[in-house]
Amino acid sequence: MKKWVSIVVASCVGIVLAFSGTGFTQTRAPYVLGFTLDMTGLRAELAKPMKSGALIRIDEINGAGGVNGHQLKAIFYDGESTPVKNVQNVKRLIEVDKAVALMGFSAVDASMASVQTAEEAKILLYSGSPSIVTGRPPKKWMFTVVPDQRVASIPILIKNLMARGSKKIAYIYIDTAMGNLGIAAFKWSCEKLNITPAITEKYAPGAVDISPQLAHIKASGADGLLISGNLADTVRVIKTARDLGIEYPIVSDYAVVGPEFITLSGKYGEGIVTTSLKTLVAEELPDSDSQKKVCMDLYNKYTKQFGPFSLYAGHTWDQVNMVAMALGKIDPKLDPAKEKDLEVIRAEVRDNLEKLKGVVGQNGIFNYSETDHIGLAEGCYIPVAVEKGKWRLYKGK
């Protein structure tokens, strides 16, 4: 009887050890990834694919055992397409949810409004918009996965118009942080390419009537038009331009790429050229392309679960992928549920991210450094066009 009791006691101790973390297994607090995405408002069409892209990569990582024995836990808040609400979300993610990193940020103004809060809390703000300008010293705690317009859109689109015969290029942009970065990139690109713009115009977000600006453009003698704007605004500009009789080539900054543009623009979208990360046209990439495998994997999983691919899924996929890589280099014993350990984790995630080199992602091949928090080079984005109601790799001039 004593022997039987001893066996039972020993077995119970073994069970306790197994579940307490001192035996065969250990239950560890998850690494919280905090996302603020504009699920409602003017930019609502971006949030759903960004959330989906994040969850695809999180499920892959958690299915493979997580990071350092910790699962990844995503928390999503609605930024409501306003900087103020995004800042409120950031504060909650830092103070209440104890996130190890701040992610999402589908708009430049949301990123820029939130960066001071992130800097003060010493936590990574990982933007999903072109919030950092090539050549400018980056803020310590802000990184992005999206190349800015100087690298990935404006000069490529100007060259596209020039190759199609345009000599007098007009530019119209939305009066937001993204649009203001766009006009700066446009002027910079024109200087680099030694061309003189025909005219530049701007419009307010959500403007119902953009015909006065387009009438000025039509009267300027322009023979090519470049647009920077949100999805719905850009479609409105294109429709108005065509209805006013502007027949020459129109190209758009990369904020419009996705299935929603094709649905919303209808016949007006046919032939519109923009730029995109390669995943949008993954099937058309040559087998020799070093990104094809990674791009095809996300493309297939996304389209199987959610329908037509949206490039915004690639932004959060890259964010999760590289934050997980940065987390993988920290001490597994650091407990994100403990305040002091969390401070160390946040700091080391930032430092480790800065050291990542040659990471094959959806937006390109990343090489971060102390002076480069974009990590992407010209050529990471490629021209694409709407052909018969589908985004295709642009194969024109």
Range of strand content: 15-25%
Order of helices and strands: HEHEHEHEEHHEHEHEHEHEHHHEEEE
Return Rg in Å: 24 Å
Coarse structural class? alpha/beta
What does the overall shape look like? globular
CATH class of the largest domain: Alpha Beta
**What gap, in angstroms, lies between the N and C termini?**
89 Å
Percent range of helical residues: 40-55%
Query: Domains counted in the coordinates: how many?
Result: 2
What is the fold-level CATH name, i.e. the topology of the largest domain? Rossmann fold
Fourth-tier CATH superfamily name of the largest domain: Response regulator
Largest sheet: 4 strands, parallel
- Give the CATH architecture of the largest domain: 3-Layer(aba) Sandwich
- How large is the count of helical segments? 13
Give the neighbour order of strands across the main sheet.
Answer: 7-6-8-9
Count the beta strands. Answer: 14
The chain-level mean pLDDT equals: 91
Unreliable parts = 1-25
